[in-house]
Amino acid sequence: MKKLSFLVLLSLFIFSCSEDNLSLENVEQKQLVSLEDIQEAVEKELSQGKVFYWEDGDDHFVWSAGMHSDSVFSIGYTIGPSFNPETDMPSVDINNDNWIKAKQRVVELILQKEAITRQNPSLTLEDILPFGEVEFFPQLVVQLTNPELISELRKSSYVRFVEPLGFSLEDQFAQKRSDSGCNGSPNYSINSSDYTTISPTTKRPWNFANHSIQTAWANSTGDNIRICIIDTGASDNQDNLGSQFTSGSSGGRTIQKYSTHVSGSWWWASLDSPNDPCGHGTSMAGFAAAPRGTDGNAVGVAYKADLMTIRAVKDVIISSSSERNGVRDALYLSGARSDVKIISMSIGTPFFSSTVADGVYYAYGQGKLMVAAAGTSLSWLSWYPVIFPANMAQTTAVTGLKDGSGNVKCTTCHSGPEVDFTIIMERASDDSRASISLASSTNQPKYTGGSSCATATVAGIAALVWAENPEASRTAVLQALKDASEFYPGRDDDFGWGKINAAIAVSSI
After folding, report:
1. Domains in the chain, CATH or no CATH each
2. Which of 118, 121, 263, 444 has CA atoms 20 to 30 A from the CA of 230?
3. pTM (2 decimals)?
4. Is the dihedral of CA 334, 340, 341, 343 positive or negative?
């Protein structure tokens, strides 16, 4: 593909964003870095087992990536070099005078440059905010066009990061990416050896035995611990996450459903419902906390735990501007809740996102245990490393294994030094036979695998442990999980502490 000229791109850009009355005729005719060159640079990092960081690209590279996507950039502002987002994010008050002044310095610079580019001397901040103001974090999410502005922002002492919010390699493979991880259909041919029927009338997944989960139930079922699932939502048509959530042996608990994902932008922007059109979030909620009910569906690990589901993404890849905003806001929503102990994220991306990372820093500072998927490959990204946010020090990374002897990762699972724990969730003899969980509707479960399944399962085990000692700290719960893992106190280069024995973990807290 030939390199796009800036003029050609802007003609398309003006047409697609005509609601903003952009007038860009006098913009410098500066050629973009091609998509092929951007892809090559990103894949070079990924092939070395590294997640890609935008800070490693030069100014022109970052600007070009933004212009190849939706021209929306995320800008993190700061009050000075003494501010450390990893430790200080939970105490930030963006309505404090110092933060207001820092934001205003950045806004003035943006408006000065963009007013020239757009030939609009009366340009205001509201004119370039496609999603409105960022409510809780020191960030600006703005539509930018001026390449020199990117350079000046990245040099400013008031700016922490500048990233093209909507760029993703996945979008360059849209036909392969579409609805990634989405399949809510039940399986009507589940092998009878892949579950055991237990009281009152529910299916215990086959892999629970590999982690002594049923033995752990003699002491803990997750009572009074709330798990938050940040994913694609919870299906309105799955009554085990609705009217039957407290059925059978799962009485006396609650489920709450929220959404932070916005569809559209500008005046077309609207907050989506908490309903799950994908099916992935429904299955993850099922693994963690589906009821031990009477309808023959699959039971979850912590079947007495309270549940909170947040629709933050449209599928498992955190790639669009609205998805990165959605995950950030979901982390604030769940992080601010004192009753939420565990946050499970079976979602991710090969791009480090400072927008999302601010949310991770915030929730971590609030004492939350964040469990994240190491990565489940699609056909075109099978060699990717442990993905973001699982690669962060603040998250607990999980991947999936095949059953049988040794440690063999599941067919599509990622492994690497960032992995902390593993869960057996795939038959070595048949990779289509994974663990079972809730489908989007009906009382017939479905096979669902990958590191997504493993992550939600660990979230459920953590709830069993925490329920045994509700006053325990995150550090104590993690230590109990380590103590009950196969390699501890050693650590494997690809599988971390290894497989967890839930019964030992519960007894050790």
Report:
1. 6-165 (no CATH), 181-508 (3.40.50.200)
2. 444
3. 0.93
4. negative
